[in-house]
Amino acid sequence: MINTRTPTDPGMTIGGLAQAADVNVETIRFYQRKGLMPEPVRPSGGIRRYAEGDHSRLHFIKTAQRLGFSLNEIAELLLLDDGASCAQARIKAEVKLADVRRKLVELHRMEGALEGLIRLCGAARGKVRCPLIAALKNDTVT
Fold it and tell me: What is the pTM for the complete model shown?
């Protein structure tokens, strides 16, 4: 990563970076421990400073998370950030898309099961035993 700081631009503190990226300082520290974010060198008697590239990297991590990539998958994507690994990045995205589609099928199944259970509750007015609870206890939910 190229350092774009100039002598008149000392960079951001970790608090400034956190604020700019709309994350908690501890989030940045966590990413550093995981090897996703670099930890700048602390100058003698000074404060660590983060460059604009660090903000871009943090933005990349948060965007990838919103798309469902795990931290391990994000680390793999970061390793592909050389401009020559587009095919490998595409494969990782295709795998993630297939995973999302599998989860959507499962969520639709869950939605249907819950709708059915809710209908049972509405149909059982005045009965002592709740049909929703009974179905969960008897594992009759599909």
Answer: 0.76
Q: Please give the mean pLDDT across all residues of the chain.
A: 87
CB atoms closer than 10 angstroms to residue 140: 10
Question: Which residue from 102, 22, 106 is spatially nearest to 65, judged by alpha carbons?
Answer: 22
Class of domain 1-69 (CATH, top level): mainly alpha
Half-sphere exposure of 78 (CA within 13 A, CB side): 26
> Which of the four pLDDT bands, split at 50, 70 and 90, describes residue 41?
confident
Give the bridge partners for 12, in sequence order.
50
Angle at 69 between CA 66 and CA 70, to 5 degrees: 115
Nearest to 30 by CA among 43, 14, 44, 16: 14
> Which residue reads 């592909």 in tokens?
80
List, in order, residues 6 or more apart from 109 with CB less than 8 Å away: 142
Sketch the domain layout of the chain as residue ranges: 1-69
Q: Give the span between the Cα atoms of 90 and 36, in whole angstroms.
A: 20
| Torsion angle of the four alpha carbons 9, 13, 17, 18, in this order, in degrees rounded to the nearest 10 | -160
Q: How many residues in the chain?
A: 142
